[in-house]
Amino acid sequence: MKQKIAPSSPLHLSKLVRDLLTPVLEWIRREELEPGARLTEQSMARALRVSRTPVRAVLEELERQGVAERRAAGGYVLRAVPSQNPDAPPALPLDEVEKLCLRIARDRVAGLLPNETSEADLMRRYGITRPLLLRVLGSLSEISMVHRKPGHGWVFSQTLNDPAARAESYRFRLILEPAGILTPGFSLPPGWLAEMRSRHEAFMAAPWTETSAIALFEMNAAFHDGLAAASGNRHLALAVQQQTRLRRFTNYDWSWGRAGVIASCTQHLEIMEQLERGELEVASLLMRRHLERTSQLPVTGPRPQD
Predict the structure, then answer these.
(1) What are phi and psi of 299, to 5 degrees?
(2) How high is the pLDDT of residue 242?
(3) What are the CA-CA distances from residue 15 to residues 85, 140, 249, 284 (Å)?
């Protein structure tokens, strides 16, 4: 049974969820799923290389559209196989907004953009229309990189490109993250290690493109935030999440290319291997070494994401 998807209003959806809807529908068709097939957050997040949070929102939207159905026992099943709508206008390339985000973030980190700016200035500087600029600013504001001033104008958030601020951040994380693994209540949710390992291995195998930096940061953030959450200490977890938000300014500025991806993912996988073995002290030591290596990289040029 094929079903045409009614166009959804974009007003209630975040930019990330809107961008994921089409790839999710294409994934369902590509996998040739039949009505009644389970739609798991883990499998969809792995296929799309994103965290589970936006996938959960996508599943809620698919339920609203009649494509998915929530089960009484929890989770979702496919209700109707979505068919492509020939009358739908062609979607803009997904990379268009991301590439502009890259340019703006790099210009800001390089000091080429002031702390406060206006939409008119940004439109002139980048030669873009207001609708496209608003999409870009919406994307940046969703990850707390900018926020709108009262009245008009935009303000960039604090960044960690300042050497002193970056050093303080790593010293703080070196206290928190290795210790979190050694807390008495440390416990990873079922399937977390398998999912995270799969995401890292997929990233190591995939070709590197300029906009891969966004997905790479989100995977790294999910790794560090996930381990902090597993500590069972809400204060520690919140502190690490706050550091993640501050580091988001570097997620568009990964300059190491594929070699850097391999190094970062390999270190993460080594930590995961020890966690799987139950060797928490070794995993904690590896986490410390991982953060120390990243903290020693130069501030100018390539900027670390971990």
Answers:
(1) -70, -40
(2) 79
(3) 21, 10, 18, 36
